[in-house]
Amino acid sequence: MVLSALLTAADPPQLLPAREQMAFTLGFHIILVPFGVAFTFMMLVCHHRALRHGDQQALVLAQRWSKVAAVLFAVGAVSGTVLTFELGLLWPGLMGRYGPAFGFPFAVEGLFFFLEAIFVAIYIYGWKRLPPWPHFFTGVVVTLAGVGGTASVIAANSWMNQPAGIAVRNGRVVGVIPSQVFFNGAFWWEMVHMLLAAYIVAGFMVAGVYAWGLLKGRRDHYHRLGFAVPFTVAAIAMPLQFLVGDTIARQVYDREPAKFSAIELLPTTGDHVPETLGGIFVDGKVRFGLQLPDVASILAGFTPSTTIKGLDAIPAAVRPTDSVVNVVHLAFDVMVATASLLLLLALWFAWLWWRRREVPANRWFLRSSAVSGLVALVSLESGWVVTEVGRQPWTVVGLLLTENAVATQGNLWPLFATVLVIYACVAVGALCVLHTLRRRWSEQGTEAVVVPYGPRAARTANGHPLGGDEA
Questions:
Q1: In angstroms, rounded to a whole number, what is the distance separating the alpha carbons of residues 308 and 256?
Q2: What count of other Cβ atoms lies within 10 Å of the Cβ of residue 405?
Q3: Which of 86, 171, 259, 363 is most deeply packed, by most CB within 10 A?
Q4: DSSP assignments along 99-141, one per residue
Q5: How does pLDDT run across 300-331, given as a tens digit for each residue?
């Protein structure tokens, strides 16, 4: 929130609390997104393994993870609903002028949300009531609906970065082409980038829980599988994320020059631009950074002679302030640094697995894995800072300034305080429920658990296979 204050020194009075509230609620909600998109996929991997290979421990994991997913889905429903109301309460200039376009992806997201909610309930309810494979496929719908909902929100966000599909007359939208609004120029790469980030964050965070168990000597199949499935998913996604991120950086270079110049901490247009690691902008000059000669130009256009637009190429009226530039640049550095650490961890895992073909027992590897979820979360939050702050001073690039989008009536500080209280209550409640589940499962153990259509429940005296209709 201190960063928001730095950005708003000369802004309208309502802009600071509006930004503070939006930053807080977005930062909170985005933590839950990976669990709705990727965690359910990992749950299905275990579920599928159980049905195909008769692995009861995998089925225990799938059943327990489904309960965690349901709790986090409920929390996400609350935080997502608050975000929806905030768009109208905090940013009436956006919804009033561009609601016919901006609202379309959210209408699609609403459909996916209801579909996901329905099938989450069916999946949880169906553990003791549905045949194995039909039950499994209800979980597939949950995962696909989560992907669709995330894609819809990304469509709205990417539209603000590269608006398309609208006809504007006298400052009002008079025509909308929904397909162009949704599938705008920034959509595909931003969507893939976010989906991979979801798999990375969920994978490392879940694996971290079981890494702690492995460190404490719990080397049973349950803990090894609980670690291996999510960590493998995250490890596969990491190199793909670097390729996608590199492509997005060049797209930003082509289409969002102000954001790119802020990322590169570049005051003036030129070629042979160095890559600046660290450093800040002070009075329009770069201070304290480590510069790698020509690297920025090479990354942008594959040659040192590539010209990159600096901040001097942006009209003064819409040029990012030094504070904005510093926030974007440092957030980008944090994102790349944390992602690089996670990539090294993924490569370490691949090397250890190649040598022994089993979950690594190296204690330094497990210690690193135990904290990898927090590192991934920092990387995710930093990436969203780059995306959102990097668009400033625009809400819709080229069409609507943020100062013209914010509410002008009333006092937003009490609303922000109310939201803080609500979110604190929801977070504490969710943590208490998850702690209760963890304690109960710890007391139960795993070997004695009889799961629906598991080996003990599904196999009869006649030796019918796992997943038979008798379950």
A1: 11
A2: 22
A3: 259
A4: HHHHHHHHHHHHHHHHHHHHHHHHHHHGGGTS-HHHHHHHHHH
A5: 888 999 999 999 999 989 999 889 999 999 99
